[in-house]
Fold this sequence. Notes:
Blueprint: H1 2-12, E1 18-24, E2 29-34, H2 36-55, H3 61-65, H4 85-97, H5 105-112, H6 116-128, E3 133-136, E4 144-148, H7 164-176, E5 183-184, H8 185-195, H9 204-221, E6 224-228, E7 235-238, H10 241-258, H11 262-277, H12 279-292, H13 301-314, E8 318-319, H14 320-331, H15 337-349, E9 353-358, E10 361-366
Antiparallel strand pairs: 1-2, 3-7, 4-5, 4-6, 8-10, 9-10
Amino acid sequence: TRLPFGYCKNSLSPIGLVAREIFDQDLKTYGYQITRYGATTGVELAGLLLKWSYDHTGFSLYQMLGSTSSPENSIREDEERKNRAPEMRYKIFLELATNHSRVRRNDIVTALGGESGVIQDHLRSLGEMGIIGYERVEQGKPASFYRIVENTPERKPTEFKHELSLSHNVYSFLQSDQERKFHSTEDISQKLSSQFANYDKSNSRMLRSRIAQICKDLERQGYVEHKKFNAEFRSEITLSDEQRVRIVSFIELLNRFLAGDEEVRKEGRDFAQRVIIDPTLFSTLMLKAKEASPHSNQQSREQINFDILDIFTEFPEITASEAHTEYNERMGRHTSRDSFGFYVHNLTRQGLLLSQHSKHGNLYKVGPHTK
């Protein structure tokens, strides 16, 4: 019951779409009503965005624009608009849609003049949700990624030394990727460990080392190619054809609206009216919003802790980043690294997880008294 009221207070009122009205001064009772600006521009934009969402069934407005309700008193009044997620996402999309060269996180930060951490959080979230492709090499992490070449030799590759089975499985995994994405040795190791029980899960670093040698050998034979980040390129943002078409359509729609295109504004008004009078359309959009909402799909803390501990039990001595990737794949959700890190920190503080520092970062395993 508080969520719509909270949006009026934290999101719609500060930008003039609704206005607060006090009904009873003594009882401190107040509410909100739409402003003239909200009844015209606000409704038109809302209808236009809902139509875009309705036409793009696989993606929600939450995924595209992020959270639109700012916490109360979290930012100064003069920063209210600048730091809002939807406007920052729009600027990022606009930069990506008009830039066809190799784009790094630093390029986006420089172009937008924003805070590096804020922009990185947006890029990471957009990447996790499949809106863009985003890869970033963390400090101390391997920077090599491999994928199958477009035209592989007709002959079968020879196995690396005595690694016949592993060589075959690594090549089969890379060959099965129809989109030809780049995969790190960590990605390949985790995939194969989850598929084949005979691989030693207690020594993941040794398995990654063997996989790296096999990938290098496959590259030498002409079956795979690799990219390697360096001091200049520690991150890369990419767009597939499908991602670019989706983002460009979104940007073009908003640009026409911002330019005062009467045709597109009428389109927004008409669709908003349809949403109001058509119960089927309304319920379809509400269901889509519910399925995309992190609030309505939130699990209990106990269940999340149980699922995280289950991963560390199955894969002892792995990093939080590796466990985060495994968690999202298992749960079929896009939990942020910050949220996942919060749970790992609490489990460590309670002694349910043990942390050990290594050159690859902190490695975790379940505590001896964890049931």
